[in-house]
Design the sequence.
């Protein structure tokens, strides 16, 4: 069930897409968890606001526990924090994730996140994982733990070129560690319909048979306001154009999940 939002490139919209899709799931009554694997903690701040500075539990504590012998280990649910929004929980990030990274990698803890999320599978209807802009221990852990992968694309030529290497990385994880992992699709973000270049770049992806999801997400300053107020779009402005795009994207993903012919609904295959 877990969906990872992944792109090694920074600033393409991973955290924005993770949190807004999760907020919509929760708003629709689905029990929803966001796992924030990025030491920058942007999703944690977006969903928890000021409480993100000192969350009562964190993912860093979870990973730290995997490195130690503890007579009475905490269960995975103890590392989950409720957000101010109904049905929406977070496994918060903290800067300590940065310090733990090398130790976790050298001690082969790459399957720990998958085990933890398996434990929580009955408690949640949707799990979204936000990842840092890198291919490192945390992103690999997430790709191993997930069933679905969303790839944000910011309509930039460098991003288009980087997509092929990215998809190869995903395929390598599929082959070596996780045959359940499926690329759900590419999410076009900050799309400007009046400019020629974004149209052309997205068309190239479609022509190459890549699974580009609909609808595309528009660029809007309201998103920055939404971050600043720690209120996902569905709570800040339910009627805003970008909110309706997120809701439609959420619905498209739900249809992909429910349909046995899932891949044929997105444009093309990977
Ligand atoms: N559709 C959008 N319209 C306007 N601004 C956007 C949109 N999507 C994202 N942004 C802005 O772009 C910036 C990067 O977004 P975000 O933090 O979600 O990307 P990211 O891929 O998670 O970044 P990082 O790789 O650093 O984790 C933020 O300032 C955000 O407000
Ligand atoms: Mg981010």
Sequence:
């Amino acid at each position: 069930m877990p969906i990872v939002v992944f792109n090694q490139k920074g600033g393409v919209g991973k955290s924005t897409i993770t949190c807004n899709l999760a907020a919509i799931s929760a708003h629709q009554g689905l029990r929803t968890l966001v796992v924030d694997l990025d030491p920058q903690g942007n999703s944690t701040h977006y969903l928890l606001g000021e409480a993100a500075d000192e969350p009562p539990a964190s993912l860093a504590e979870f990973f730290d526990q995997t490195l130690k012998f503890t007579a009475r280990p905490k269960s995975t649910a103890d590392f989950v924090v409720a957000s101010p929004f109904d049905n929406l929980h977070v496994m918060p990030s903290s800067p300590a994730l940065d310090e733990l990274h090398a130790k976790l990698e050298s001690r082969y803890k790459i399957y720990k996140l998958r085990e933890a999320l398996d434990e929580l599978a009955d408690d949640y209807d949707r799990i979204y994982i936000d990842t840092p802009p890198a291919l490192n221990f945390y992103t690999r852990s997430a790709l191993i733990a997930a069933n679905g992968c969303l790839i944000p694309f910011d309509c930039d030529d460098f991003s288009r070129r980087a997509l092929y290497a990215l998809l190869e990385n995903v395929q390598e994880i599929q082959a070596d560690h996780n045959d359940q992992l499926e690329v759900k699709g590419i999410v076009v973000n900050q799309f400007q319909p009046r400019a020629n270049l974004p149209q052309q770049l997205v068309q190239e992806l479609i022509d190459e048979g890549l699974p580009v999801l609909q609808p595309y997400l528009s660029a809007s300053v309201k998103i920055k306001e939404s971050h600043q107020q720690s209120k996902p779009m569905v709570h800040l402005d339910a009627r805003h154009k970008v909110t309706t795009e997120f809701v439609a994207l959420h619905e498209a993903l739900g249809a992909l999940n429910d349909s046995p012919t899932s891949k044929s609904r997105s444009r093309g295959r990977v």
About this structure: The domain at 2-254 is CATH 3.40.50.300 (Rossmann fold). Strands lie at 3-5, 32-36, 81-82, 88-91, 126-130, 148-153, 182-188.
